[in-house]
Amino acid sequence: MGKFGIRTGAATMAALALALSACASGKATGGEPATGGDGVKTGPGVTADKISLGMLTDLTGPYASLGKSITQAQQLYFEQVNAAGGVCGRKLEGIVRDHGYDAQKAVAAYTEIAPKSAAITQFIGSPMVTALKQRIEGDRLLTIPMAWATSLLGGQAIQVTGTTYDIDMINGVDFLAKEKGIKSGDKIGHLYFEGDYGQSALNGTKYAAEKLGLTVVEQKIKATDQDMSAQVSAFKDAGVKAIMVSVGPKQAASLVGVAVAKGMDIPFVASNSAYSPQLLGTPAAPALLKDYYIMTAAAPMSSPLPAIKKLVADYQAKYAGQPVDSGVGAGYSAAVIVGDALKQACASKDLSREGIVKAHRSQPSWEGGFGTPMDFSQIDRPASRASFITKPDKAAVGGAVVFKEAAISDLAKDYQVPVG
Amino acid sequence: MSDLHETAATGTEARAVAVRRRLTRPLIWVAAAALAIAVPFYLEGFWLQTGLFAMSAAVGAIGINLLTGSTGQLSMGHAFFLAIGAYAYVYFSADPEQGARQALGGLGLPTPLAAVLAVLTAGVAGGLFSPIAGRLKGAYLGIATLALIFLGQHLLFNATAVTGGYNGRAVPPLHLFGLTFADTPALVVMDVPFGALERLWFLGLLLVLGAAAFARGVLRGRPGRAMNTIRDHEIAAGVMGVPVARYRAGVFVLSSMYGGLAGVMLALVFQRTVPDYFGVFLSLDYLAMIVIGGLGSIGGAVIGAVFVSMLPQLLTRYSDSLPLIAEPGSGGVSPAEAARILYGAAVVSVVLFLPGGLAGLFARLRAGGGGRTGRPARARGLRFSSSPTPTPSPDTRS
Amino acid sequence: MITFLELLVNGISIGAVYALIALGFVVIFKATEVVNFAHASLLLAGGYLVARLQPLTGFWAALVIGVAAAAVVGAAIEFLIIRRANVASHSVLAIVTIGVDIVLTTELTRQIGTEILALGDPWGDSVVHLGEVTVAETRIVALFTAAALITLFLLAFKYTGWGIAMRATAEDSETAALMGIRLGRVSLSAWAVAGALAAVAAVFLCVFPTPGLDRGTSLAAIKAFPAAILGGLDSTTGALVGGLIVGVTEALMTGYQNQLAFLGRGIGDVAPFLVMVVILLLRPAGLFGIRETARV
Question: Which spans are transmembrane here (chain C) (predicted)?
Fold first, then answer.
């Protein structure tokens, strides 16, 4: 065992020797903000001719279809900006990392790309964003999550775009009361996913129901559940007059299909993640086309807004034959939001992370032409409280058309969003 | 390798080999130690983090290898014990907080104590399952332990006061001997900024070494022989006086505690617990690790853990320079998919072509490289062979 | 009461589908003592082929081809991998099937991509009214198909040469081999049968109450694990009973979620596993499983 002592001693010596030479290692130089030749202060991810933007997406997991659309739309935006000369004389470059909806991979991917990114233009999956929330705030890295849960509010660096799920549901319940004859004393059902998507949405429904004197019948499911027969039986038994839907497209299709087949002639109001145009190719299509409404803060892809018309045309030109779903709009507008923040930051000659977040937060009424104006100056409130009501439509681009233009209901106006 | 000394070489040749061995082995150890210590000074955060995930996986894999590799009991519930370890650490160490929406409980204990208690809690959880773990064997236990995963997920999402529900909870950094394992307060060692990952690196190394040493002790002693006998011939074990059910339950508890320790390490690296993570796929990963590395061998568990945790990261990182693998988002086989296919295929091909796993392969290569030819492909893969002869303890090196 | 009946009927019909999957496990286990974790991917493969072929060939032809192809995939796994792995412990073989499952599932989900594939079945979304209880027609068909297939197997086990060979192998494979039973053939056929059963189950998992086949479909196979084991891994009757128990438990616990809110919401997914644990505590070999006895 004496040998062991010598060995450890030798090992320590060798290690110390190595460590001493560490001064030569690349890590020794810190990544402090520097000022470039053009007088613009720069931070990580920004060089003299390039701005790197991180994209933490899901291309192989359950949200792969969304992730693909978002990523391609953002690549399209970078190309367009670069063709027009870039931002601040620098080209935009996206760094894509696929986490497959796995928290560990997401954390690893963040650790890899955060040091070389100036901002994150998309981050799919609230569990993943939640896992990294503290680090993102600590790094002051402007991040656009592709999730709309209230738990993501409250930080400077994370910007939830548009409405949160609860606001959508409040506007939806308001719509039911005003136009679908739901009145005080009625019961409404809510089918929701376990997790903060479902929970945020449920909070909104509960708030609106309380204000209007309605009772909420809850049914919680997991993302792996496929068949909603038992849930429909329970809703039918309770005698609900309408059902709110905050699950995935597949479960939504099952719910609506079974309910209609069982003769429940009631309206369904869904969160924006509970619909996908692909459902119109399945047996559930007739039921969905009947009385199904989707609440969304972003105008659907079939909207006549010029910005959206141009986006659809450009996207179809670049990615011919690929579906133009809501992910395209969501991804593109998120990229524009980051692009605008960079332009603002450039104007004040500060492309450090701090500068980018500050520039972004200085916009109280941002309007990218995608439907509703957003307020980025309040960190503890959703950027917008206005929701479009859209309806599935086979012929429309993106499979949905505007049923009612974006509006803020009175209920949503006074609603205090729970933060954190 | 005492058995080799006796059998293979004789006379001067043997002495020469022995001398060379005595000289080279410490050198290899020194080099390995120096390398391990130098890593945080050179590599960026991404690599350190990947390394730390691999270390946590190594501890967990050693644990499940004791159960599955050495005792022949299949467990699909390992992720549950990781979850117990991670969440118990948070609960014991965090201060209770009165949030806007939900109150989170916590005991506010000193963090090292919380870590130890978390490992013990995982052991207790394993013990509670022992009526089943002791009585069922092999694949039956495998499926029964699936229940733990689903039960665990249900608890993690619903026992919000302890777990924080779907949000998870922030993990309090470990304080040990006046050192905080977090990015703040800032610490600079020899001009290199030492953040949480750099600090945790050394702790992780120590824990892996400790976990491996302990498992080695278990396997080489009486318990190890008893475990192997249960695996190879349950009835013979019973006849020889090994209390089979008690051993099975005991190994299950021990393996749960390894899982718990891996969970604590993971929580410290993650800095936040996320319930979705502790699902069935994590359990499958662990089974893949021990098969790829080599069933029943400690080194194998570590190698398998490194392989499975590093592979997707490496492929993603170097996807642009690898053939056949497409850039994420450009269609084709993405790095994540390639990694999954590769490691699934690795599990299959190891069993078909590499009895003993990667550890067995390394052992053979080393034997070949040391100038000794004709060493039979003896196996560290005895557990793979169908020979009915009693199995020696899995690690006969000295 | 009507809700209860409706949940019960739904539970029984989905339970019958689980029973088909569980029967596949049991057949493989009886013949080879391997727990086949690759069952989920067999299911996905069968369903995928049916969904892809049906626009070209129509539903029935696609069904036949899909079932046959899944049988071939099952047989190929046995022939190329399981047979060649010289492994003493069946736990190791179980892990091997996990590896197979990962490879197949990854490739299939990559092929499916982001689509939801409709199966084009003839039943569509029609429902049957039994008094006040409504049940999807697909589920009635599933129930009868499963019942017919399971009966067929019980009879085949009892009376055909194949069944006797299978039972003899399960009893004592070495003696069976000495008596001239070709173990390779028995195990190959078991895997093929399991693949075919999984494909049939896949079809019923992807029709009406669910909109179609997508990457998540294979996860439903996980529910057949408790079904197979609580009935007893070596019992065909057990597979049937286990499937029904899992289906009914799941449906009732979900349907009465509001009354059971104290257990936490979403208990329906956990309940089958809890039932399994309780049964295993009382009977470690499952309800109908034969407790292994050994003479020394």
Answer: 7-28, 58-81, 87-104, 140-157, 188-208, 220-248, 260-282
